[in-house]
User: Fold these one by one.
Assistant:
Number 1:
Amino acid sequence: MTSPRIALIHALKHSIAPIEAAFAKAWPEARLMNLLDDSLSSDLARDGKLNDAMTERFLALGHYAAATGADAILFTCSAFGPCIEAVARAQAPMPVLKPNEAMIERAVTMGQRIGLLSTFAPTLASMPPEFPPAVQVVPKLAEGALAALDRGDRARHDRLIVEASHDLRDCDVIALAQFSIAATAPLVAEATGRPVVTTPDSAVEKLMKLLAAKA
């Protein structure tokens, strides 16, 4: 299989390092391109909901990525599901992945009660409907963690996530809702004694399968 070109589209700069690390570990041959528009997340936080203008911006990003010769697109921003679905329809049959879909597929095989831990409140509104209705999703916001990360205080960011995770100890599995918090998986697993799934590792694994099937 030739080295595929994967377009990674980000709404938070913190998402870039975790997904690059996941590719380096599992699929170093893939050629990555990063597109970052960090106004997407601040505009969503300001507007409080997704709108047509936001969908148009996503379609433009998808079109640009396809025009560069990408073989697949992975969005790393978890609060924009409907916008990403619009890109998937526009770019079919190219694989276009929402950041969470591979992790959700994995999590539902591990239990019925799934803790969903996030540092970005809109994610906890947009993401639970992506789970199958048969499972119970327990959302939990690690308040203040994202602001700490924005200030460069990773230690406080990680500590707030671990503290928030204590409320999810009665879940079968804990899903970390964002790429930017994937690195805390070992800490959350230790604090809760529960298995933890992350978005980057699951997404890379799914892309490998999809593009291998296409090759």
Note: The longest strand covers residues 5-10.
Number 2:
Amino acid sequence: MTADHPDDAARLWRQAQALNRRAAAVSPAAGDLPPLLFFTDGPRTPRPWETASRLPAGAAVVFRAFGAEDAIKTGRRLRTATAGRGVRLLVGADADLAQALDADGVHLPERMAGRAADLRRARPDWLITAAIHAISGPLPLDSLDALVASPVFATASASARPVLGLEGLARATALGRPTYALGGIDAETAARLADSGVCGLAAVGAVQSAFARPIRI
């Protein structure tokens, strides 16, 4: 990250890195994870490859195609935007699409988390994360690299899930796997996560907005 980054992008990235360093001091495995995840979200991120091309090395994109007809085309643009730049690409819910795109891993919805063990056996090289919302029921934690807890704060998403807040987030981090905070995350709310134990930040709109302008290196 250089001084030429927009201020909000630099701030968000620094916050994500600081959280990752703190988490890695407790759980070294967290240090191998991207500090910042950019989640794509259909109409809210119509040209996600543009944002992806501006992310700093070490970040990652979670491509959620939601069954879109142009999933392959968009995914290839995201792979082109991330390949060779130290930005990892995960595909949401669709291991076949991840394979086709030569992605770096998958992100599983909570309802699909049980597939993590099979995916780990098939692709031990993949980064595998899973969503967690209600913090109830068993999860294949040994097969997951990280959890993504959401929504941590109130969010613009259409999801009607109850907000976890810091108390709910603490229940997620207590499961013992590196955990990201998603939902209502921006540079202001991220400041409230300093002592939460999360390994990084995940966001849709905040990342897209922060990295809206080309970055001059």
Note: The chain is about 30% helix and 15% strand.
Number 3:
Amino acid sequence: MATEPSMAPMTLTTVVASTRPGRVGRSVADWFAGQAAECDQFESHTVDLRELALPFFDEPHPPALQQYTKSHTREWSRIVEASDAFVFITPEYNGGFPAPLKNAWDYLVVEWRHKPAAFISYGGVTAGTRAVQMAKQVVANLRMLPIGPTVSIPFVNELVDGGAFRPGKIHEAASEQMLDELARTARVMRQLRSGTH
């Protein structure tokens, strides 16, 4: 008996936005990977933009045409196309998000459509929340659906010990709430993409 599309495991892609030396984003992502692994509705994996190493957008054709000429674009397209939901882990740079994250979004158009986006932000007193507000405008323009629940981590450096992020109970609870909302939204949007109701 075939598995209904709405019941098959969904693919969750977590994107690490910061690429700079000394970043804490990867340690936050490693913690979140453990949280996501406990959510049986998702098959989860992490994409680190530093490792992906996309150059600044270098395709000769508009991304909406999907006429890709570069191997790095085709690989990124494959990853995003295969994903049902996204979590973007971002710091805040001057009230916004890092340039590599915007660049990663700009490479593609069609592959992002009708997929939910969630955010984990970190920083000092503002916890990266202004970056998330700006990011939600961008993903909405890509016809993604930014969900309400987020994870905000103020004073993140105080929670990093030996290179590992040590969350508090409030972060774990927020992560669980975000994953629950993300799974429910992703299930509905998968049906929307497949044309089933």
Note: The helical segments are 25-37, 49-52, 71-81, 99-106, 129-141, 169-194.
Number 4:
Amino acid sequence: MEFQDDAFVLSARLHGDTGAVVELLTEQYGRRAAYVAGGASRKMKPFLQAGTKVMAEFRSRTSDQLGSARLEPMGEGPASLFDDPLALIGLNAAAAVAAGALPEREPHPGAFYAFEALMGAFAIAEIWPAIFVRYEAGLLETLGFGLDLSRCASTGEMDDLVWVSPRTGRAVSRTAGAPYADKLLRLPPFMLGAQAGLDEGDVNDGLALTGHFLEQYVFHALNKPLPPARVWMMERLQEAGRL
């Protein structure tokens, strides 16, 4: 099996004395692990950081075997974020969520494009946490667990949607949900449209919302918790007053 595709590095670990096993999110071929010869070298290590965009030439004898890859970096990658530790924490969290949630060898172009959009947003400190929420919502959708925020699950109304059912992932209006407010998840306005503003607490509500469904529908089925990198990101955002 051979292919060439754009990809983002999600993680890398040393393998043997000179190589590395690199986990990639490819555009057309999904999440792939590959052995990269020379991956332990000083020359290659900077290109194996999470978030680096590469052109990957992948080869394997069979479709289910660990293949090998030759990687060519594209652009400066995460180097532009080195002066922003919080953005780097967000990047590592995004890579960990993708690596943990996406099935290996299953094409999900939407996940690649969502990751690419988030990479572009990390340079804008004021907005990337909200884009992170949209990124996770996109992952849920591409995995078949998309949130239905189009209308109230109870009344069919399209206005004043302020909650989400933790069981169904469907929006609930203010009036219909009032008696059950303590059991519902808050729906921040920015998840309903790009024109909505971003108020204090909205990012926290958004991350709580996507985190609930990632945990319930994706990671629970894999007998895994949410990635520690994501938990660490929320703690640091809280400390920085960014939630």
Note: The helical segments are 85-101, 109-121, 128-142, 174-177, 202-219, 228-239.
